[in-house]
Amino acid sequence: MSVALFFSSFLTVPYFPCICLSFCGAEFIRANQTSKRLTTNLNMTIKVGINGFGRIGRMVFQALCDDGLLGNEIDVVAVVDMNTDARYFAYQMKYDSVHGKFKHSVSTTKSKPSVAKDDTLVVNGHRILCVKAQRNPADLPWGKLGVEYVIESTGLFTVKSAAEGHLRGGARKVVISAPASGGAKTFVMGVNHNDYNPREHHVVSNASCTTNCLAPLVHVLVKEGFGISTGLMTTVHSYTATQKTVDGVSVKDWRGGRAAALNIIPSTTGAAKAVGMVIPSTQGKLTGMAFRVPTADVSVVDLTFIATRDTSIKEIDAALKRASKTYMKNILGYTDEELVSADFISDSRSSIYDSKATLQNNLPNERRFFKIVSWYDNEWGYSHRVVDLVRHMAARDRAAKL
User: Fold this and answer.
1) pLDDT, tens digit, for every residue of 22-81?
2) CB contact burial 337-372 (16+ within 10 A = b; e otherwise)
3) EC number(s) for this protein (predicted)?
4) Checking CA distances to 331, which of 248, 295, 346, 353 falls within 20 to 30 Å?
């Protein structure tokens, strides 16, 4: 913080009768820390850094822009990747094969005259520094840049202890945009986000896109008293960047090495089991698998389950529809139209329940065996939940005066 900014932060706060211009040692440090707190209170933008500007990192950034948050509620200070050529980042943002052209102004510039290439994005007039990736997140300059919240979207630092490197680099909190291990708390917006404890949860996971689709369905079933005795989930999932365009080497997953655009590929997923982390009453009751299919975006969850009480498709359908309009609005959607996957591209909701695809077992007197189906844009919907979680954490942190 510059001396000019230091004094301006005092001058904007009333009832400071005098300012001592003589500081030394610890007194200056304490005063500087006070100044930072005052500045934070006056400027309520959330300072964010994105580690990994790949598919999800860019989608999160675009979600911030489309929702009008960039420069208003959230200030993206820096994006981190192996490449720091801002012109290439700008190109990737401008043109997207799935979601279309970027709707906002984007240009590039140099952070200082001495750098060889443009290393700063300028989006809607806001400057975002492009920072070189580091093997150890602790070596990233979050503290120097004033970053409070890091969105960890490289896919490399999903173990809590590894992601904690961002804290040592100066960040206050880390949101992992993937399932995490090693004790990181998992949150699904609309389901268990209110369990967030500002003083305990410093590295958290936003779960997977599939868990974000499935958990809202299960949450409504449990909340509305239908319950789940046991269940099997299948996600029919679009291919992702981890797959191969042509047959290639995949020693750990032989089928996963086959050409993504030419095959339906059975795969594993921990999404169903992860629901037990966010809805403890379902722990051990759900499991599932995935089929990776030749579509670039939008996936669909098929949940087959046995309820804990007698009910009907009509009753379940009504409960999900009601929830989509009330306590799960903007998280859970509802459709009774004849829609297909392309109709859900760029849908920002986590899960869109398909009323027409829901089934009840037709055995005589069977009133507990059901199948429900829900769509999700595995890129766009998930990225919006990452943004929502950061905003939720920041609000809670500030309420706790952290």
Assistant:
1) 333 443 333 343 334 333 443 589 999 999 999 999 999 999 999 999 999 999 999 999
2) eeeebeebbbbbbbbbbbbeebebeeeeeeebebbb
3) 1.2.1.12
4) 295
CA angle centred on 177, ends 73 and 279, rounded to 5°: 100
φ, ψ dihedrals at 139, nearest 5°: -85, -5
Residue 65 annotated as catalytic: no
Contact 339, 356 (CB under 8 A): no
270 among annotated binding-site residues: yes
Distance CA 263, CA 256 (A): 10
| β 332-335/230-238 pair status | unpaired
- Whether the pTM exceeds 0.90: the reply is no
297 annotated as ligand-binding: no
The catalytic residue among 65, 130, 209, 213 is 209
